[in-house]
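Worked example

This section walks through a single chain of length 284. The input is the sequence exactly as stored; nothing has been trimmed or padded.
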Amino acid sequence: MKRILVATDFSTRSDRATRRATLLAKRVQADLILAHVLDDDQPARKLKAEKREAEDLLSQLSLSINRDDGLSCSYRLAEGEAFFGILQTARDAQADLIVIGPHRRQLLQDIFVGTSAERIIRNSDIPVLMANGAPAGQYRRVMIATDLTPASADVVRQFQRLLTPHLHASEIMYAFPAPAQNQMRRAMLDEAAVGDYVAEEEDAAREGLAKFMREADVLDAKPVLQVNETKAAHTILAAATASNIDLLAIGVRSHTGLKKLLLGSTAENILASAQIDILAIPPG
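Given that input, the structure is written out below as tokens.
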């Protein structure tokens, strides 16, 4: 990884992203690029004043990072819609990773689809790191979520290409389905029979995960299996919490024949509710 671009709107949320990006850039020895997008739908005089203020703030911040963290840090300003400006700036800078802060969670209802964070992740050609957790130090424990598909193996390869040898996966997590479990319970079958069925599904999932890890060359990671009784996102996040994970890598998939990505309900729910950092990796 050579260049990390971090999006900032000078808020507390983006301060978190900037600090995480700085820590990661130091770890992987990458250059850091600060990016800010100005809303151009306003009077020219106001836009000019905001541009001057933003340049002052970005200049001070980049100099501070260069001095205090010993990093090569520059900044870029764009105008227009926030998500498009960040993506275009990342392309122009040939960035390897985009770092963003957590999306604004609503007080009464969590709305993720349509936010700038969601649109950046959905339309990005490169991985996007959503910095949700407090960046107190370097990442210690990393989990990669898999569904054992070829697309999921590509997520592992991209993770390794992006972060190896600086960071390795601690755990590979598979939330395996047991589709007949609820039907058996509704049919009032004995719990022992339900347990036997789930155990059989778990044995098959264990074999599938072991094969996946051999083929993806992640044998150093710990395999983690959990039956998916509710939503896969809840199962994955619960497993991450139990293992004290501070970075969770997930895949987003492309719509056949289109550049636009489909986050899928699992990825969308994880991104909407996670309290830990999430690395969203698009198809390679």
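What to look for: Residues 44-69 form the longest helix (26 residues).
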